[in-house]
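Form 12-C: Joint structure prediction
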Amino acid sequence: GAVVSQHPSRVICKSGTSVKIECRSLDFQATTMFWYRQFPKQSLMLMATSNEGSKATYEQGVEKDKFLINHASLTLSTLTVTSAHPEDSSFYICSASGPQGMDNQPQHFGDGTRLSIL
Amino acid sequence: KQEVTQIPAALSVPEGENLVLNCSFTDSAIYNLQWFRQDPGKGLTSLLLIQSSQREQTSGRLNASLDKSSGRSTLYIAASQPGDSATYLCAVSTGTASKLTFGTGTRLQVTL
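Section 2 - Result
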């Protein structure tokens, strides 16, 4: 149980393109989803936390207009990198927690998306 | 601000050895601590989760301990195998909304 699917696994696109990444909880209701960014040989850095039906909470230094997050249902959250540039190239990973909606629920991670902007 | 550090950053051992990975955190007010495995270019696989009230958790050849007061955790891997080669990350949960702060990771290579 507790499977999180992330799609696509890899994206290569031109500078200026907007890219959407999906994160789905397949067998549980995810009241909270998290988006992380990971640079090569570095650890995961939390970008934002999203709760179903409400606006995402962004970490300090993360541009909310650059990284649009939508959590429209209990099983789907999307991250859209708008007008992507080469410096946005990175490995993006989502996670989901739930279903009780209580604090201190374990997070279940997707397989990540490798984004490469040319 | 919570900071999580892992030592060593990289480790290479021959197959069959027992090994210990270390994790330290600056704020002892945590809800839980998790150890994850990450293979190159992949997501995270949860290995063990220790609640703040617990001292250790075991799963197969893995044993994780937690000393919350001193801000330390160790992951013990017994009889290491080449398939254990990966990056191991520890993460602590603090505050509300189950937010995780990740350590810097230990890259493990188990050689034949």
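Section 3 - Comments
The mean pLDDT of chain B is 93. The two ends of chain B are 41 Å apart (CA to CA).
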